[in-house]
Write the structure tokens for this entry.
Amino acid sequence: MLAAERRDHLLALLAREGKIIAKEVAADLGISEDSVRRDLRDLAAEGLCHRVYGGAVPVSPALADYPTRMSVTPDGKRKVAEAAVALVRPGGALILDGGTTALAVAHRLPRELDCTVITHSPTVATALLEHPRAEVFLLGGRLFKHSAVACGAAAVEAAQNVSADLCLLGVTGVHPEAGLTTGDAEEAAMKRALAARAAETYVLASSEKIGTASRFRVLPFEDIAGVITDADPRQAVVEQLTARGLDVLTAG
């Protein structure tokens, strides 16, 4: 099989199965695992897959820049945001992550809701200016422009001095094997710091993030209360997540 044919085969397998196991592909095609791994390195360099131990999984589309992500599955983000808002209790304290789905949550919080919102996202804080009864605490630090949030040591230290009932956390990938991931190490550390300060953490994951992965792990599934997604509950990846005991809240 020619290199171009192997490439097409791998991409088709990734789209169909949601993962590639190098050892199995090598056996099926009668080639060496080194050849498969080399093909996967080339695909990963082009941004067409994310390599993991033993193979590869789909790469997350949420790694695009912030303006581009604003136009990705806006209806799915709206549904996830509406389901997430239902978890916010009057008088409670909410840690709200940054990113486009978190911004959708901010826009959908009831205007007269009496609550405290802690965020490291200037865009989320600005979206709450017209909420007269919402007390907003903005955590500062180095601005990570990809997600329009504060990160770094100063932001992590600030997060360690707050607490909340609920944390709504964004990620770029949710995969049964790769876990909850994002594309930047400092952002992953900041997300862990935020989640550690809440009684419960739910992950906001519109359907394009389900079954994909990025480079840096955020949290193990055991450290969150559940995932909120608009993905079909009959989707194979969602069924795998549910089978491992994860609470998956269906949005929409």
Summary: The two ends are 45 Å apart (CA to CA). The mean pLDDT is 90. The CA atoms of residues 19 and 29 lie 16 Å apart.
